[in-house]
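Amino Acid Chain and Its Fold in Token Form
===========================================
Scope: a single protein chain, as residues and as a discrete description of its fold.
Amino acid sequence: labelled as such and written in the usual single-letter residue code.
Position: the record begins directly beneath this header, with no further notes in between.
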Amino acid sequence: MGSFPGHAMSGISFLALATFWTIQQTFNPTYASYQRTGRRGDRRLQRLKRLPVEGTVVFVIGVIGIIGEQVYKTWKWRLFDDHGVVVYSDVWQHCTMYAVFAIYGVSKITVGTYLKGAERWTKVFLTFAYFVECMLFYFHLHGRTELNIRLHTLEVLAVFMCVLFSAGEIWFPRDDVLPWLRTWATFLQGTWMLQVGSTLYHPLRNDDYSWDEDDHLNVKFFSMIFAWHCILGIVVVTLQIILIKTTMRCVFGALPSSYTGLNGDAEENHLVFIGGRNNTSDEECQIFSQEILTSEEEG
């Protein structure tokens, strides 16, 4: 990852993952509301929901990342040299990051195909992946310039927010805000990874096109740029939501005004049509349904 292609691949991967989550979290409740109106669902979408799309893509990206780190520019498949000294430590750190996300991908595939109802465990593995990434980035700064340290410290901050929001989903699986915060933080991590790569390892970087990495003004400037990336993430995710809802309105037609996705539609909003099951187990779903029926009878 200590190159522009390495940072670009990581950044684009996180952007793609965040975009997938945005589509998933916008499409699912809206499509559930369409089904409540009695409209027939698309059979292709019904088949798509059974495929572990997210897990497969994440696993493949993790494997490609590991191989790319080990073969880019030179063959590196060893941890010690002939004298027992650790070599390519940065490369192996990057491979470890890719490996934990590949494990998360395997957990998504397993839960989506064999252990249905254990969706919460995928959040555990996702939190674990973010935690390992955050820890390795935090101890990845020795001997670097001031600007390099600041850029990677801000990356640590973005990853830590991913850890925080993803861990929150383990304990509060019905919370509707945490998945969006996790999506935004992942998008932020992706854009900032691209920023780090273009700043430190740009292909056109030379004496005439480079930042003074020991200039305090440059360090302050990129702290402000990080704030701009935070704002950019909010704007892009919001635009994606608007685009998805507009597209669905064009394809399926407008929903009746009574279907708002609130209150009576709440149980439908937890249905999942893209990317697997919801965040609650089958037992929790049964308890939730009984609570709804009891409240209706009392009403």
